[in-house]
Amino acid sequence: MLLGAWVTVVTALVLVVPGALVGRRMTLPWPVAIAAGPPITFAIVSLFTVLYSAIGFEWNAVTALVALVVTLLVGWAYAALLGTRRLRGLVPDDPSDDDPPLTRRATLPLVGGAVIGGAIIAITCIRPLVKTAFAGLGNVSQVWDSLWHASSLRWIHETGVGSALRMGELMNYDTHGFNYYPNTWHALGAVLFPLTGADPVELYNTYSPAVLAITVPFGVASLAYWLARHRFDTNRSAVLAGTAAAVSALFPSLPYVEIQLTSVPNAVGVSIAPIAAILIISAVRDRRRVLPAALALAGVTATHPSGLILAVVIVALWWLCEGLWRPAYGRLADLTTLVLTALVTLVGIAPVVAGTIKVSDTNELPFFDFREESVSVFNALGQAAFNGTIPLQDHYPIWGLIVLTLIGLGVLVWMRCWAGLAAWLVFVLVTANSVVALGPLTYPLGAIGGYFYNSPHRLTFVVAMLSAAVAGIALGAMALGAAQLVSRLVSPEPTQARSRSARWVAPTAVAVLLLVIAGAGVWRYPSDAQIASKQRDGKFVGPDDLVAYHWLERQPGVRDTLVMNNLDQGTGWIYPVTGVTPMFPFYRANDFSQRQRDLYWGVSQIGADPHVDQIVRDMNVHYLIDSPPSYWPFQNGVPDPEHGVQGDPFLSLREHGAPGLTPVFRRGNVTIYRVNDSVFAGADQASG
After folding, report:
1. Who contacts 242 (Cβ-Cβ below 8 Å, separation ≥6)?
2. 196: which of 169, 237, 394, 402 lies 20 to 30 Å off by Cα?
C-alpha cells in the first residue's frame, strides 16, 4: 500500500505542477492554472513526444524536463507579447470584477474536497489489489485493453519512443506497420519509472487510479464552480466545487467501472474535458486565455478524442443557451474568439488528426453495438440518468445519489443555468440511445456516442460527472444554508457579534460536511472496491502464467530471442511482466506479415515443414508458450472457417505435439516448448 500511496503522490505532482506552471506563466490566476494543470501537462507531453520522435530524441524524465523548460519560455514570450501596447486591448479593463480572487477560507474547502475525493478513489482502487488479488500490486487484469496499457508503459520506458504515431512498432514485432494510438497518458506514466521504483505491472495498477484520483475531482470541481457562478459569488462557488470534488468519489462510475474495464485513457480524457471547455468559455471574456485554453483542449484531445467531443458539446450548448444572449464584447467578436481558439487547437492536435485519418480504414467505432432491445425506453432513460447501465445493474439504484442529483438539477433551474441542464440532458439521451434505440433521435445521438464506442459505461461516466457536480452543489448549498440559519439562531440581531459567529459557523458546517462525505466513502468502499477490482481472478492470465513467465525469463539467452505465442490467449503479458519479447505483444496486430501467418497457423508443423522451420530460424524463435483458453469463444476449439469459427491454431500442438518442439515447462494449463536443435541444424544441412 505504501507503493500505491507513493505512486499517487508522485503522479499528482508530475500531472499537475508542469501544466500549472505553464498556465500561470501564460497569465492564468493560480487557482485556474492549477485546475488547468493536467490538460496542459498532457498537451506538453503530446507535442514533445511527437517532436522528439521526429528528430531522434528519446522521451524520458530528463527530456521531459527539457520540454517543460521550453514550454515555460514559450509561455514567457506569450505573456510578454500580451504586455505590448498593440495587444493590451485583449485584456479586460479589470478582470477581477468578473471573477474576484478566492479568499483563504474558500480555498481550504476546495482543496480539502479535492484531497478527500482523490484519497477515496485511490484507496478504493488500490487497496483491494494489495489485500485480496493474487500477486498483489503485480496482479494482472483479465480485461483485453489492460495488456496494451501495461505494455505501452514498459515499451516507452525502454525505447524512449512516446509518439502516438509510432505505436505500430509495439503492436507488430515483425512489420512495425503504422498504428496511431492516443498515447499521452502512457508517455507521462513512463516518466514515473525512475521516480517510483515500480515495475511495469505495479505501475500500471497504481498509476491508473492515481491519475483518475486527480482528474475526476478536478473535472467535477471545475464543472461545479462554473455552474455555481451563475448565481453564487466566487467564494461560495469554491465551497460548492470542493463539495462536488469530494462527492465525485461516491459515484460508482467515477471511476470504478473504468478501472475495472481498463478504459483509463478515455476516462482521463473525458474527466479533464470540462476544464478545457470552461477555460475556453472564460477566454471569450478574457482573451489572454486563448492560448492556454487551446493548449488545454489539445491535451484533452491527445489523451483521448472522446474528451474533445465532450468539450465541444459543453461549449456549443453554452453558446446556444447563454453566450448568444449575453455576449461579452458582441456576438461576432465572441464567436471570433471561439474560432481563433479552435484554430490554435487544430495546430496543437495536428498529429492526432493525421494519425486518425491514416487509420480511418480500420476504425471500428461504427460497428460497436451494446443495445438491449428487451429494455424499455423508460428503463433505459433511468439507467442512463442514474448510474444503472452495464455493468452496474446490481448496484442500481443508489437512492442517496439519485436524490442529490435531482435536488442539484432543481438548483440549476433556480440558477437558470440552462447550458448545464442541457449538457446533462443531452448525454442522458446519448447514453440511453446506447442502451436502446430512441427512434428518430438514434442517428444524431449515435453520432455523438460513436466517439465513446456507443458504450453505455463510457457514456455513463460523462453523465455521472455532471450528476456529481450538481449533487455537490446541492449538498454544499444545503450546508451553507444551514450555517446561515445556525448563525441567525446564535445571534438573531445583525450585530458585530453575529459577524464573529459567522466566521466559525460556516467553516465548521463545511468541515462537517466533508467529514460526512469521507464517512460515506468508507460506507461505499466494499461495493465500489468490488467494482474496481473485478476481472482480477486469473481466468486467462493467472498465477501459473506468472510462474511460467519468470521461469522463461531465467533461461540463458532468452532476451536475445523471440518467443512464439498465441495472441488470443493474452500471453503477450510476458512482455510487461518480464521484458521478454513475444511475437505478439497484444491480442491483435496490425498488418500481419505472411511469415507471421504461416508460423502462427503452422506451429504443429515445426520440425516437419521446411518452410515453417525456415521462418523459425529467420525470426530466431527458440521458445513457444501455450496457455489456453483464448479470450473470445470463437477463438477456441477446432478451426472451422466455413462456419465462421476461427478456432485455436495451437490445439493440434496441444493434442499431438510437434516434431521440432520439446515441452520443457508445465504448470496448470501453461506449457513452454523449446525449439529443438535439429530445427536450427537444418539450416546447416540445407546449405551443405
Report:
1. 109, 110, 111, 112, 113, 114, 221, 476, 510, 514
2. 169
Q: What is the per-residue pLDDT for 361?
A: 66
C-alpha distances in Å from residue 225, one per residue of 113, 218, 245, 308? 13, 10, 10, 20
Q: What share of the chain is helix, strand, coil (3-state, %, to 5)?
A: 70, 5, 25
Does this model's pTM top 0.85? yes
Grid coordinates 445493474 are at which residue? Answer: 393
Measure Cα distances from 437 to 373, 380, 442, 449 in Å: 8, 10, 6, 12
Max distance between CA atoms of the chain, in angstroms, equals: 108
Q: Kindly report, residue by residue over 444-473, the tens digit of the pLDDT.
A: 999 999 889 899 999 999 999 999 999 999
Distance set, CA 279 to CA 273, 293, 611 (Å): 10, 5, 61
What percent of the chain is modeled with pLDDT above 70?
A: 93
Q: What angle do CA 653, 659, 663 make, to 5 degrees?
A: 60
Closest CA to 250 of 8, 475, 21: 475
CA distance linking residue 348 with residue 297, whole number of Å: 9
- Residue 373: DSSP 8-state: T
Instruction: Tell me the C-alpha distance between 406 and 471, whole Å.
Output: 8
Q: Which helix (DSSP H) or strand (DSSP E) does residue 462 occupy? A: helix 456-490
At a CB cut-off of 8 Å and minimum separation 6, what does 299 contact? Answer: 19, 38, 39, 40, 41, 42, 43, 44, 45, 46, 184, 272, 276
Instruction: Say whether the peptide bond before residue 397 is cis (omega within 30 degrees of 0).
Output: yes
Lowest mean pLDDT among 185-189, 295-299, 354-358: 354-358
Is there a contact between 138 and 119 (Cβ–Cβ < 8 Å)? no
Question: Going by C-beta distance under 8 Å and a sequence separation of 6 or more, which residues neighbour residue 265?
Answer: 149, 182, 184, 185, 186, 303, 304
d(CA 197, CA 205): 14
Phi/psi for 307 (5° steps) reads -65, -35
Task: Name the pLDDT band for 681 (thresholds 50, 70, 90).
Answer: confident
